[in-house]
Amino acid sequence: MKVLVINAGSSSLKYQLLDTAANNVMAKGLCERIGIDGVLTHTGNKSEEKYTIHTPMGTHSEAIKAVIDILLDPEKGVISSMSEIDAVGHRVVHGGEFFSDSCIITEKVIKAIEDCVPLAPLHNPPNLIGIRACQEVMGPNVPMVAVFDTAFHQTMPQAHYMYAIPYEYYTKYKIRRYGFHGTSHKYVSQQAAEMLGRPLEDLKLITCHLGNGSSICAINRGKSYDTSMGFTPLDGLPMGTRAGNLDPAIIEFLAENEKLSAAQVITILNKKSGMLGISGVSSDFRDLDTAINEGNARATLAKDMFNLSVKKIIGSYIAEMGGVDAIIFTAGVGENDRSVRWDVCEHMEYLGIKIDPEKNKYRGKQMDISIDYARVRVLVIPTNEELMIAKDTERLVKEMAK
Asked: pLDDT digit string (tens) for 270-312?
């Protein structure tokens, strides 16, 4: 099945066309500056050459049309007819409590996504625009699927997702821990089960999605059991520019002493904190490593704080699940930063966790980096959220056709 995967932002649109039978990316690209002047960057697997095209994209519908046009282009494209696209899978950030799985998009589903806009005001509106744009350009006969970042975490027990605030705020506003990166956590847990040669339902896993945005998930017998992000992606680990866990009274303190509104403080916690705020250098871990090698103490502090936070959460999840079979590192930092993996797992031998320093030298490669005799396996698994979206789309479209 050929599935077009769409990830729509407010002024951008990422896409991949995948052949699910071969797990092959046929083409991928990015539409930027939608509503301004329009730039499309495209790579097809016929030549693997990257093309940059300046084309008017006043709306997301025009961006989708530009994507279809380049996919059909005799020189740059990879298909000969739009009818070759069997389905479209849309990444949707927030599904609230409505969705515990991906689903075929209907008007009822769109209404539920709209109802979740207050929970994700920056993400769900452009996701909806992308869905409407595809429907407009591709017509009613192409099935479309919504794949939610939050859906995987809907299996968490209530004690794990509730906040200790008056209960009526949960019933009235649905304030609770939702968790994010669910598609990534789900994908790498399935890959881990294959690597270990054991059924996913028999395993206790901890998946560490570490990048500019980071979250950790305890996966107990194939289901999300706990996760570090909360009501919003601001909760949990300190990240590239996000503060992560902190005493909420800090918000009022900063607002009063810096003469800021609560919204301005939240912006600081989202965009000026984390690795950037502590180091004063960058939100990019590669830049931090350069600064550390040059003796920058604040860059060292930032990375030490990040690694310690990851270690703490891993330890708490081992306690929650009563053990762990494997720890998985994924996403940009998890897949490529060997110092993070080493520091996180250091001094955890008493739990059966020990990394082989030679195996840990590899970057971006799916492999077991544990020392041979380690009881708990440490795995590096490159994430592939687009493939997971495509596979979910294929599954649901085939079920619908039965």
From this structure: 999 999 999 999 999 999 999 999 999 999 999 999 999 999 9
The answer to whether 233 and 213 are in contact (CB under 8 A) is yes
**Which phi-psi region, left, alpha or beta, contains residue 138 (left: φ > 0; alpha: ψ -120 to 50)?**
alpha
Q: What is the pTM of this model?
A: 0.92
Active-site residue, selected from the candidate residues 37, 86, 101, 149? 149
Alpha-carbon distance of 218 to 208, in angstroms, equals 9
Please tell me the total number of residues recorded for the chain in this structure: 402
| Sign for the pseudo-dihedral over CA of 161, 166, 167, 171 | negative
Report pLDDT digits (tens) over 371-394: 999 999 999 999 999 999 999 999
- Is 149 annotated as catalytic? yes
Specify burial of residue 31 (Cβ count, 10 A radius: 0-12, 13-18, 19+): buried
Do residues 79 and 17 lie in contact, with contact meaning Cβ atoms separated by under 8 Å?
A: yes
Question: Residue 28 — φ and ψ, nearest 5°?
Answer: -155, 160
